[in-house]
Specification:
Blueprint: H1 6-10, H2 13-38, H3 40-64, H4 67-70, H5 73-83, H6 85-107, H7 112-126, H8 128-137, H9 139-142, H10 149-154
Helix pairs in contact: 2-3, 3-5, 6-7
Length: about 160
């Protein structure tokens, strides 16, 4: 439970940033292509699936580090199905957190910009913790296993 040194903390993060950016652009391109080429309703449905599935996409990307595998709809739906009800609780929790900025903007008009920025940045950091915990908690259902921390402490 010690913090990494500065060199380890920032190594590899720029590559992950570009991968996340590419993943976001690729998903947007697929949704827009479906809407423009096939049907606007199909594009809206695909957009809704991607919005609801974005925590699953991020969770699987955190696990595998692979962009194309993370945005695969079969992998996305499998993860949501295997986690089950806990995934929908996570979605509800994330939506509540995202709406805190809206509540602040409607309740406090003048001094709200600093508070909004603070709450939005705090929420952005905090939102990843329940996603990682959900991934860790359901690792046996998802078909992988991490090292048990209690076994490492005994060694």
């Amino acid at each position: 439970m010690t913090a990494p040194n500065m060199a380890d903390a920032f190594s590899g993060t720029l590559g992950e940033f570009w991968q996340l950016l590419a993943m976001t652009l690729l998903v947007a391109a697929v949704v827009l292509t479906l809407a423009n080429q096939l049907s606007p309703w199909l594009g809206m449905l695909a957009g809704l699936v991607m919005i609801v599935g974005s925590p699953a996409i991020l969770m699987w990307f955190a696990h595998t580090g692979r962009v194309l595998e993370s945005i695969n709809s079969r992998v996305l739906l499998r993860l949501i199905y295997l986690v089950g009800q806990a995934y929908w609780v996570l979605i509800t929790f994330l939506l509540i957190m995202m709406n805190t900025v809206t509540v602040i903007s409607h309740q406090l008009l003048a001094p709200s910009s600093i508070l909004q920025a603070t709450v939005a940045n705090y929420d952005a950091v905090v939102m990843f913790h329940p996603m990682v915990y959900l991934l860790y908690q359901y690792q046996d259902r998802l078909g992988f296993a991490t090292a048990d921390l209690s076994d490492k402490a005994k060694q």
